[in-house]
Design brief:
By secondary structure, the chain is mostly beta strands. The protein has one helix and ten strands. Strands 1, 3, 5, 8 and 10 form a five-stranded antiparallel beta sheet that branches.
Length: 179
């Protein structure tokens, strides 16, 4: 089984829309491409960031199978959009766990992007109830492109489930039943 950590609140929406409850636009279990977060580049190459808190999951006690999934596209197809997705652990200051740069380019087709954390990155998480995600969009063509995001989540193994390659032992007890 798998646990899913989805956006739970908006820390800072930056210039991303909608202006209230941004996290609700990208927190669905099944993506909804009609319910999105968007940001429009003003044509000068500025980067636009949003920061979200992620929902709590139990510590899986495993450094494997930690995957951040993002679904994105451009609206007009004339930009060259780069998305940087960061997973952070809340603190003073926040601790960077993992980062991925996604080349959305000028694609107007919805695309699912995944980043699998290394075991070192996953093992650096000490508080699964204190995770944040930051998404930074930049149009490298400086073309007034609109970046569209419809889903973001972190998946991890269930708590207490041994990772791949674990050895499982079974013990059979000799029981005699009388009927």
């Amino acid at each position: 089984m798998t646990q899913y950590s989805r956006p739970a609140s908006t820390v800072d929406r930056g210039s991303w829309l909608p202006s209230s409850n941004l996290h609700l636009s990208i927190d669905e279990a099944l993506y909804d491409d009609g319910d999105t977060a968007t940001v429009e580049d003003d044509g000068d190459g500025t980067s636009y960031a949003m920061m979200l808190t992620m929902g709590s999951v139990s510590d899986p006690v495993s450094g494997s199978d930690h995957v951040i999934s993002t679904r994105a596209k451009t609206q007009n197809g004339w930009g060259n959009v780069s998305l940087v997705v960061k997973l952070l652990q809340a603190g003073t200051p926040d601790t960077l766990i993992a980062t991925q740069t996604i080349s959305v380019g000028n694609s107007t087709t919805w695309t699912d992007y995944t980043m699998t954390l290394t075991s070192s990155e996953a093992n650096a998480i000490s508080n699964y109830a204190g995770l944040k995600a930051q998404v930074i969009a930049t149009d490298l063509n400086e073309s007034d492109e609109i970046t569209v995001l419809s889903q973001l989540f972190l998946s991890v193994p269930d708590a207490g489930v041994a990772g791949a390659g674990a050895v499982h032992h079974k013990m059979y007890l000799g029981l005699k039943l009388s009927l």
